[in-house]
Give the backbone structure.
Amino acid sequence: MTMNTQGRPSAPAETGTAVPQTFTGNKALMIEEALIFEIGDVKNCGVDIPEPPQVKDRLGKLKRKAPAGLPGLSEPETMRHYVKLSQKNYAIDMGLYPLGSCTMKHNPRLNEKMARLPGFGDIHPLQPVSSVQGALELIDMLAEWLMEMTGMAAVAMSPKAGAHGELCGMMAIKAALEARGEGDTRNVVLVPESAHGTNPATAALLGYSVKAIPARKDGTVDPADVKALLDDTVAGIMLTNPNTCGLFERDIIAIADAVHAAGAYFYCDGANFNAIVGKARPGDLGVDAMHINLHKTFSTPHGGGGPGAGPVVLSEALAPFAPLPYVTKTDDGFAVVEHEAEDPKSFGRLTAFHGQMGMFVRALAYMLSHGSDGLKKASEDAVLNANYVRARLADLMSLPFGNKPCMHEVLFDDSFLKDTGVTTLDFAKAMIDEGYHPMTMYFPLVVHGAMLIEPTESESKASLDLFIATMRDLVMDAKAGKTERFAGAPYYAPRRRLDETRAARSPRLSWTPPEPITDAAE
Amino acid sequence: MRYLPLTNADREAMLADIGVGHIDELFADIPEKARLKDLLDLPKAMGELEVERLLSRMAGNNVSAGSVPFFVGAGAYRHHVPATVDHLIQRSEFLTSYTPYQPEITQGTLQYLFEFQTQVAWLTGMEVANASMYDGSTGTAEAVLMAHRVTRRNKAVLSGSLHPHYRDVVKTVSDMAGDEVVCLAADPAGKEDILAAIDDTVSCVVVQTPGVFGNLTDLTPIAEKAHAHGALLIAVFTEVVSLGLVEPPGKMGADIVVGEGQGIGNGLNFGGPYVGLFATKQKYLRQMPGRLCGETVDTEGKRGFVLTLSTREQHIRRDKATSNICTNSGLCCLAFTIHMTLLGDHGLTRLAETCHANAVQLADALDGVSGVEVLSDTFFNEFAISVPGNAADVIEKLAEKGVLGGVPFSRLDPSAELDDVILVASTEINTEDDRVAYTVALSEVLS
């Protein structure tokens, strides 16, 4: 039996359905597709480039000796290849994508259109500042919106993704501590057990040792547990709010006060900010730094895993240490501060240029479209949808912290599957056969067999009702011992369950030509 | 609000099902004093037309690269991206999909990541590549951290050939992590003695080729000396198209090759999103940062792909992870892979030859302008010139004449005191008319 990374079985039993095989292996619209290395050729090409002018080269002795061996395809072949690949993906545009903590909401196409305006998409980061005033205005306007939404003093725009934002925020904290002369003595960061893995990884990257804060019985952090860990070696706390159990940390102000009283700073992981936009502001909760995932809260497309964008809002205390470059307003228009000499307090540069401009345009288009009223309504609908799912499934599934209101996502554990032989993984794979992307599974780590469901505000009531009915049907089958629906799942996806153990044990990370078949091998 | 499907009747019915009377009851855990009573002080919702009008006005206040003779590079390059690329990456199934955590329904993403990794490994001449970094600069900082893990040392030597922004990113991360960085001076002539900086305390040497001033460096002797002292050679590039014509670092002994992949498939976008390419030797695989896609089989024995070796990563290893990275540059990888598939060896070589030929012709033309000197002995598609007077002023005056003529080096690094140096790039987009416009404008500005 093979196991996946969570140590659960990933090889189901054979099913023995009597369906005729096709010659091609295709199943109607489900068409197999080889790799480009198997169908392309180094002589093929899908672009027409005129013969280059003949010049004496200036490459010294470093001209490439042999080509890379990359296959090419003509344009129609390329189109078909990638269209066929795309058809093996699930997507928000197809249906509910309830990955908790990932915020798979609708991606408006207006945002795509705006990002492709030549005035945004076709400008260079090092053009003269006088030739990009509109771009700087856009960055400045987005920054103003983010500051108003969060009630914070400043925002660092350049972080490339959420984890990069965490790095930025923790660097600002470290710089502030160094400025106070406590850079060497404060070397501990407190992180709750329920935190995203990026939090402890970020703290460790900066040389901090990580101390875990246990979760209290109701899934939140107890200020008393924080106080017990606070002393003059603590640099800060990294707390996600709303947290990864889908709950608002109701003692957040007491925690912030205790952290500040101990001379430490409060980093808030803003991955779940989408639940509270327009309802509460991190600045009013005592937060010193928080990243905002523009690809979650403000709907820039996830694109199969990126690119993201992670601007970081900063309190008055941390604002002076913000990274370079940043945009300022002057009498002559917008300017860019990009060198240490202009701002010696800044902790430095985080990335080559200004950040994820393409994502800035999309996020601002999203914000402008919603406005103050729509942003608040979106948060409310996201929370309403999650609670609706909770209320309608509470009798059949298990809520580890009791049947009480959640924020934008609802967390179940696997105790409702006890003695059924069905695991969280099996349950998730059965959802695939029903046409759903599964919820986040086995995260957060603080509950057993976690199932974290985030429907987002993009779902209609009809969509949620069908999802709920499907979940109820699955749960009832599991409880009734009808496990074949789970053990072999998925049956109808482009692939049956994949062997992750094999992939990790002998990694094949690039294509290699097959061994030639010889008679001797017979 | 056009993006919100719930009707007020739905909301009422759902609240009743939940058993609360008002939406605010679901937000009761927010401390009373922090609950917002009023709307945020921001404009109210706008229709699509109004948003488009407002943003188009801002976009109109920028000079787009395609509207003028354009020679700006220094880490981001304007190439022609085939229409097929932008169409394909906007397919819903690619655009609106998440990280492929459920491989059975994300084989599309996983297969293109596998193709991407293979293309990057072959292109750089390395054994393994990851599924991308945020960009070249952050990738370089990750490469340095990786070298520290491999060698268990913590001192990096950065060549003056390294893009100053890349150097600064490495310095920021190293300073914060408590690691040491030695930076060699920027030198347009490319005559630095980097071998002298390598000893048994050094973890890695970081060399960019083509360098920021354009010069090409034979990495072989640097690799040999680094290896003799137990250090790694990290080779950096900022223009991936160069690999179509220049010997790849992997064939010159580099241990890690990292660089910016924007030049294939991706537009300028004012600096992001871009796509960092990262490749190394098989033996260092488990110290590599970032996502990896690997081949496996399903229960019916069919080939498929999954994210793998995640025991290196933060979501499993937490504070013991190789990196804090979670996101990659998914859609930008896809653009890269599609464009590279359209090119193939034949197209890439021809593209690179065209860029180089255009740059050579431009260098010769600018060399003929009175007072201008071409400083780079060797180069691919970007070179350094010196001008009489202040380069930043010259670039500004060129812009007033409608020519975006390059990057004054002082914009990247004012402390280098190379105030007369301009970095000039040329790609396949430039025409003879562009070159004439540049030389004429530069002659006028300098006269």
Notes: Chain B has a mean pLDDT of 97. DSSP finds 13 helices and 13 strands in chain B.
